[in-house]
Design brief:
It comes from Acetobacterium malicum. It contains six helices and nine strands; from the N terminus they run H-E-H-E-H-E-E-H-E-E-E-H-H-E-E. The protein has 225 residues and is α/β, with parallel strands linked by helices. The chain has one domain: Rossmann fold (3-Layer(aba) Sandwich).
């Protein structure tokens, strides 16, 4: 994603609506993260997929809320060094799309990743990305939009994403342009997509609800298997 592309849709008339509900959902997910992962002040933690955006209230909300900032490393395909300075985080590390993460096995106690999985490419790319998260951390907490929430929050089009994905892409390309029609930029997942991935550890899928409907999937390592 380059700076020339407004992938946050700043000028979209629904952006305030999206940001409001995104903040509520992300605060709910942060509370769930604390409940499930139990972060401590000694845990080396990775936020994978931070953004340099500072305009929207929901951007990097995890980093703002996380209490142990001196132990928090952020990684991104974009330069987030200003975020590290602003919040006094541990460090920023650049990672390349579709490449192995630049970290040693189990370098971190925790890997947190919010709203990134849907932007890494197709099924095999997503599978590789999840496996890399499992490789670098003991505990993972990953969020991604649920494909069957009625409103697709990138294009702001309802229900269209329930069609076969190639059909969705054709219509989006004709009405919105190439960016969100490209699998490398957007590929939503369902629970069954995650469950059929070949990963070294089982992933547990749970949900966060918005206005009473499943809106986001939460992926954690299932320690009971």
């Amino acid at each position: 994603m380059g700076n020339a592309i407004d992938y946050f849709s700043y000028d979209n008339k629904f952006i305030s609506f999206k940001t409001y509900f995104s903040c509520k959902a992300r605060k709910k997910m942060f509370d769930l993260f604390v409940k499930l992962v139990h972060p401590t002040e000694s845990d080396e933690t990775l936020d994978l997929g931070a953004t340099p955006d500072s305009k929207l209230a929901d951007s990097n909300l995890f980093d703002k809320l996380y209490p142990h900032k001196s132990k928090l490393t952020v990684a991104s395909i974009e330069d987030c060094s200003d975020l590290v300075k602003e919040l006094s985080l541990k460090e920023f590390v650049y990672n390349e799309p579709k490449k192995a993460l630049p970290f040693a096995d189990k370098q971190f106690d925790i890997c947190f990743c919010s709203a990134v999985l849907e932007h890494v490419g197709g099924f095999e790319d997503q599978e590789f990305f999840l496996q890399e998260c499992i490789r670098v951390a003991d505990r993972i907490f990953i969020t991604t939009p649920y494909r069957y929430f009625p409103l697709e929050m990138h294009t702001f089009i309802p229900f269209l994403h329930w069609l076969p994905w190639k059909t969705f892409q054709k219509i989006v390309k004709a009405t919105k342009g190439d960016f969100w029609a490209d699998t490398d930029n957007l590929m939503l997942c369902s629970k069954s997509d995650i469950e059929r991935m070949n990963l070294s550890k089982p992933i547990k899928v749970s949900f966060v609800r918005t206005v009473g409907m499943k809106s986001n999937m939460i992926l954690t390592i299932d320690t009971n298997k």
